[in-house]
């Protein structure tokens, strides 16, 4: 970094406000769509693992192995099939969420008290209805706890996608390094952190709205 | 109504939960399944709604083999109350109660209207409708559990130790409420408990199971107490079954004598002419005020001036059992139990020895009844 260059040039941020907003949108999409896809995969997979316990250890092992593969390596593998597209970033990020989301779905289902499960059967819920109408709703707090972790880590991981030119706000980090210009780097880091915090806050809010029953205070009738 | 035909439940590991059970449960009555843990009583209960499938034999409901009915459908027609209430934590109290009607495809509006009725029926205020289960006490949750089981007005109710997870005071309350409800609803109820007192209090008929899933005796509470089939049943019923049998003798059958009863306006001297150590002082309506010890009477004046020992308690000839009468005798300072009529006026007194005569009389009646209708169930009056 050249001497005398300030950490942040506010006029640069003002000049690039529109562009920054666009990249922020891309970043959000790249970070959050994998969490949505991850959930779409993890919920049925978690239900199966809960139903047939023998399935859970191998599934968890595979999810953890996937998580242990460096993102760079995964990008290189998928580039061969999906090119330098957003998909090449989102597929690995989706796979990464599984190691958090699958265990949380399984734990969430396991958190359903045995009398509740028995009552559902005794009332005449079939097995599928019991899962959809009773067990999954009760698992929501535990599942959302997993979604929070997955979302925050996914949002921060997006920047690595810049290696194949699809890094959302990560673009400003490489750009700043190339130009030896700190303002875009600092701006991108702050924006990514803000995105992660805002997403987390929204998820907390979502949980409160989805699970009014998990709060203990007596509401006025 | 509910019929077990040589029903057994064996598990692959070799344990036998229920062994060759044949039993017929009467329509409209409460049958209590009781026994030590591991005796197969809960398994028996769960075979009625197919939560457990028997390995041999047939269970039939109103003449129909229950295996002919799709299990979830069968269960929607049978109420079930579970030990820890098992309410759905994510649903409001009203929606919990509406569970089965909604499963049966009722409209939301109709199901909720029905649920609101049931909330009232089980004695909970309507403000609770919108609350969630974790905002209710254990006893309240259990009431909701009963309401939920009654959701679609099923003819049969299965209750698996429904009152065992609450404290004794709440339990007694729930039991009383349950007896009141049953008087109104006349459901066919199968009730599982490990508590013989609860069984005797609630059951029209009691099936006592022994470890290994064998039925030891199936009888009315009176006959169970009077004639336990064997040592196991006698031991399970308990050492005080003689006293407990008195619960089934109406206080009205107790022989009473007039006793030393004097109005409070009587002069003290009058009490001394009665050849008894204690006199019962009553008001102008013959309601008892207390016992006066003749030895402790003042020299002059009326009995209103005399120091009175508390009554202990009286027993009512209209509602109480001979057990209450015996208890009253044991607690009375004069050792005399005071029997009162519906207005609370003294009818007469009896001591514990005189009360024991009522047992012999009851015994004779029971023996006659047993000889008369061998096997037929005539649920007696008793302390309900």
Describe this protein's structure:
Chain A is 77% helix and 0% strand. By secondary structure, chain A is mostly helical. Chain A has a single domain (10-209), classed as MetI-like fold (Orthogonal Bundle). In chain A, helix 6 (114-123) crosses helix 7. Chain A is elongated, with a radius of gyration of 21 Å. Chain B has 2 domains: 2-247, 3-Layer(aba) Sandwich (Rossmann fold), CATH 3.40.50.300; 252-357, CBS-domain (Roll). In chain B, 34% of the residues lie in helices and 22% in strands. Chain B starts with a strand and ends in a 12-residue tail after the last helix. Chain B is of the alpha/beta class and 384 residues long. Residues 374-384 of chain B have low confidence and may be disordered. Chain B has helices spanning 41-48, 71-76, 93-97, 99-103, 108-121, 138-149, 168-185, 196-202, 221-226, 231-237, 241-245, 268-273, 322-331, 352-372; strands at residues 2-10, 16-25, 30-34, 56-61, 64-65, 78-81, 156-160, 188-193, 205-210, 214-219, 261-263, 278-282, 288-293, 315-316, 336-340, 346-351. In chain B, the strands form 4 sheets. Chain B has a 6-stranded mixed beta sheet with strand order 6-7-8-3-9-10, sandwiched between helices. In chain B, strands 2-1-4-5 form a 4-stranded antiparallel beta sheet, covered by helices on one side.
- Report strand % of chain B: 15-25%
Radius of gyration of chain B: 26 Å
Number of helices of chain A: 9
Which term fits the overall shape of chain A? elongated
The computed structural class of chain B is alpha/beta
CATH superfamily of the largest domain in chain B: P-loop containing nucleotide triphosphate hydrolases
Number of domains of chain B: 2
State the major sheet of chain A: none
Rounded average pLDDT of chain B: 88
Query: How many individual β-strands of chain A?
Result: 0
């Amino acid at each position: 970094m050249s001497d005398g260059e300030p950490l942040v040039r506010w006029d640069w941020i003002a000049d690039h406000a529109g562009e920054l907003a666009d990249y922020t949108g891309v970043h959000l999409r790249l970070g959050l769509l994998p969490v949505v896809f991850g959930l779409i995969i993890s919920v049925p997979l978690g239900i199966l693992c809960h139903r047939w316990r023998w399935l859970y250890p191998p599934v968890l092992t595979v999810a953890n192995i996937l998580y242990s593969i460096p993102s760079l390596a995964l990008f290189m593998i998928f580039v061969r099939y999906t090119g330098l597209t957003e998909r090449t970033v989102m597929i690995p990020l989706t796979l990464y969420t599984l190691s958090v989301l699958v265990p949380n779905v399984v734990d969430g289902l396991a958190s359903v008290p045995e009398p509740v499960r028995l009552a559902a059967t005794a009332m005449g819920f079939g097995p599928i209805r019991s899962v959809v109408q009773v067990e999954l709703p009760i698992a929501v707090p535990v599942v959302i706890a997993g979604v929070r972790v997955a979302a925050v880590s996914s949002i921060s991981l997006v920047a690595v996608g810049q290696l194949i030119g699809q890094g959302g706000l990560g673009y400003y980090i490489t750009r700043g390094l190339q130009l030896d210009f700190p303002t875009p780097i600092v701006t991108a880091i702050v924006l990514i952190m803000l995105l992660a915090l805002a997403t987390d806050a929204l998820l907390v809010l979502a949980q409160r709205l989805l699970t009014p029953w998990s709060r203990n205070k007596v509401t006025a009738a | 109504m509910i019929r077990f035909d040589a029903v057994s439940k064996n598990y692959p590991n070799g344990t036998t939960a229920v062994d060759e059970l044949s039993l017929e449960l009467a329509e409209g009555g409460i049958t209590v399944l009781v026994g030590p843990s591991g005796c197969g009583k809960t398994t028996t209960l769960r075979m009625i709604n197919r939560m457990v499938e028997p390995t041999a034999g047939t269970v039939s409901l109103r003449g129909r083999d229950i295996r002919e009915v799709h299990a979830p459908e069968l269960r929607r027609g049978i109420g079930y109350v579970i030990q820890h209430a098992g309410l759905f934590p994510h649903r409001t109290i009203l929606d919990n109660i509406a569970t089965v009607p909604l499963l049966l495809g009722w409209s939301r509006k109709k199901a909720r209207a029905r649920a609101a009725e049931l909330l009232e029926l089980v004695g909970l205020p309507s403000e609770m409708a919108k609350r969630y289960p974790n905002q209710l006490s254990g006893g309240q949750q259990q009431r909701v559990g009963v309401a939920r089981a009654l959701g679609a007005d099923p003819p049969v109710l299965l209750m698996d130790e429904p009152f065992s997870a609450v404290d004794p005071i709440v339990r007694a309350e729930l039991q009383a409420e349950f007896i009141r409800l049953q008087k109104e609803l006349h459901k066919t109820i199968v009730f599982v408990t490990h508590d013989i007192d609860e069984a005797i209090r609630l059951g029209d008929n009691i099936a006592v199971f022994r470890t290994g899933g064998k039925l030891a005796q199936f009888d009315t509470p009176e006959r169970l107490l009077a004639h336990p089939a064997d040592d196991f049943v006698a031991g399970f019923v308990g050492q005080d079954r003689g006293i407990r049998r008195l619960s089934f003798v109406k206080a009205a059958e107790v022989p009473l004598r007039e006793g030393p009863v004097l109005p409070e306006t009587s002069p003290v001297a009058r009490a001394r002419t009665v050849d008894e150590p204690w006199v019962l002082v009553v008001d102008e309506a013959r309601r008892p005020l207390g016992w006066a010890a003749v030895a402790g009477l003042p020299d002059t004046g009326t009995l209103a001036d005399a120091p009175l020992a508390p009554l202990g308690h009286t027993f009512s000839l209209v509602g109480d059992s001979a057990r209450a009468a015996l208890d009253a005798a044991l607690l009375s300072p004069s050792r005399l139990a005071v029997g009162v009529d519906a207005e609370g006026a003294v009818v007469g007194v009896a001591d514990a020895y005189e009360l024991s005569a009522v047992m012999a009389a009851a015994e004779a009646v029971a023996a006659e009844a047993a000889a008369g209708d061998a096997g037929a169930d005539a649920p007696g009056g008793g302390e309900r």
